[in-house]
């Protein structure tokens, strides 16, 4: 019987990186799953669980979708073949998805934000969100709503414990 290692990631199995700030700063209207075109040392570095989506964003240029500012650190065992950590990477989507996305982001009010980077069947995928920016008052309302819900569940928990005791 072999010992199996458990992943300590809260985001789910196979998740390499998540952009937790994106849902705070943007209203996510739609999500898309896209493949990421990588070189050898990038996939090895990602399998070690190293990546950062903090400053990453996607653009549509000449009928192609590109992921920019995704930070994948150099592979620790790599040599002269190592990749550039912040290079622009091509995203793999169906033509009809690219055309749909291009039409939706053309007006400048919406943007493409990577939400999470994960492994699926041995391939690296990125979940893209078609997003509209939130205003400061929207962010404050969301924080207030979460706080109120937390207090309600806490009160209900106390009442249930009081009834059983």
From TrEMBL:
<dbReference type="GO" id="GO:0070929">
    <property type="term" value="P:trans-translation"/>
</dbReference>
<dbReference type="Pfam" id="PF01668">
    <property type="entry name" value="SmpB"/>
</dbReference>
<dbReference type="GO" id="GO:0003677">
    <property type="term" value="F:DNA binding"/>
</dbReference>
<keyword id="KW-0963">Cytoplasm</keyword>
<comment type="similarity">
    <text>Belongs to the SmpB family.</text>
</comment>
<dbReference type="GO" id="GO:0003723">
    <property type="term" value="F:RNA binding"/>
</dbReference>
<keyword id="KW-0694">RNA-binding</keyword>
<dbReference type="InterPro" id="IPR020081">
    <property type="entry name" value="SsrA-bd_prot_CS"/>
</dbReference>
<dbReference type="InterPro" id="IPR000037">
    <property type="entry name" value="SsrA-bd_prot"/>
</dbReference>
<protein>
    <recommendedName>
        <fullName>SsrA-binding protein</fullName>
    </recommendedName>
</protein>
<comment type="function">
    <text>Required for rescue of stalled ribosomes mediated by trans-translation. Binds to transfer-messenger RNA (tmRNA), required for stable association of tmRNA with ribosomes. tmRNA and SmpB together mimic tRNA shape, replacing the anticodon stem-loop with SmpB. tmRNA is encoded by the ssrA gene; the 2 termini fold to resemble tRNA(Ala) and it encodes a 'tag peptide', a short internal open reading frame. During trans-translation Ala-aminoacylated tmRNA acts like a tRNA, entering the A-site of stalled ribosomes, displacing the stalled mRNA.</text>
</comment>
<dbReference type="GO" id="GO:0070930">
    <property type="term" value="P:trans-translation-dependent protein tagging"/>
</dbReference>
<dbReference type="InterPro" id="IPR023620">
    <property type="entry name" value="SmpB"/>
</dbReference>
<keyword id="KW-0238">DNA-binding</keyword>
<dbReference type="GO" id="GO:0005829">
    <property type="term" value="C:cytosol"/>
</dbReference>
């Amino acid at each position: 019987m072999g010992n199996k290692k458990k992943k300590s990631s809260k985001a789910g199995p196979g998740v390499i990186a998540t952009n937790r700030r994106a849902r705070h700063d943007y209203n996510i209207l739609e999500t898309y799953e896209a493949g990421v075109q990588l070189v050898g040392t990038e996939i090895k570095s990602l399998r070690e669980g190293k990546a950062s989506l903090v400053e990453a964003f996607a653009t549509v240029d000449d009928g192609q979708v590109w992921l920019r500012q995704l930070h994948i650190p150099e592979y620790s065992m790599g040599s002269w073949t190592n990749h550039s950590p912040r290079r622009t990477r091509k995203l793999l989507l169906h033509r009809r998805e690219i055309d749909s996305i291009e039409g939706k982001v053309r007006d400048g009010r919406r943007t493409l934000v990577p939400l999470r980077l994960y492994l699926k069947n041995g391939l690296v995928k990125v979940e893209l969100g078609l997003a509209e920016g939130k205003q400061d008052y929207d962010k404050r309302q969301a924080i207030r709503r979460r706080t109120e819900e937390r207090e309600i569940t806490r009160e209900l928990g106390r009442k249930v414990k009081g009834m059983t005791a």
